[in-house]
UniProtKB/TrEMBL annotation:
SMART domains: SCP (SM00198). It holds the Pfam family CAP. GO terms for cellular component: extracellular region. This is Fis family transcriptional regulator. Residues 17-158 form the SCP domain.
Length: 170
């Protein structure tokens, strides 16, 4: 249900605000680990918008097929009640996975739970070789759908997100 259904104010929404929040939160975490900042990429954002709209129209929440992405990229998804959550909460849910992240090890063995899926959003954000991000939000009848695309893609099995030279593609 939309926020108004619960008698709540809608969260602030604006593409510029989203870009600022996404880059700010992603790059703050990357900086804390000594990683290069990500740059916003409008082609990734446009491709993310296309897929976010598709999920909002079909009400189906799942990762897109890699072959369907206009740019080969990694993908983080988020879904929540329409209008209820601000961008900080959305991106914060990805970053909250840090508490389950095990720095030593290689994908898929990077989570204290034993399930790499429990840290996959976080590891994509901190993947050393990733250079660009683009995100978009679409509103469905009852839910918001956030799609973030990353280039080059991270979460490569057999690798640690912090390994390699900064600037190297993964």
């Amino acid at each position: 249900m939309p926020a108004s259904y619960y008698g709540l104010e809608e969260a602030d929404r604006d593409e510029g605000l989203m870009r600022d929040v996404v880059l700010g939160m992603h790059n703050e975490e990357r900086e804390s680990l000594g990683l290069s900042p990500l740059a916003w990429d409008s082609a990734l954002a446009a491709d993310a918008a296309r897929y976010a709209r598709q999920m909002a129209q079909t009400n189906i929440f799942r990762h897109s097929a890699r072959a369907s992405r206009a740019v080969p990229s990694g993908e983080n998804l988020w879904m929540g009640s329409r209008g209820l959550y601000d961008y900080e909460v959305m991106v914060g849910s990805f970053l909250d996975e840090k508490r389950l992240f095990r720095r030593s090890g290689k994908l898929p063995d990077l989570s204290v739970t034993g399930r790499w899926e429990d840290v996959g959003h976080y590891t994509q954000i901190i993947w050393r070789g990733t250079r660009k991000v683009g995100c978009a939000l679409a509103e469905g009848q009852s839910y918001d759908y956030l799609v973030c695309r990353y280039y080059p893609a991270g979460n490569v099995f057999g690798r640690n997100p912090l390994d390699g030279e900064d600037g190297a593609q993964s």
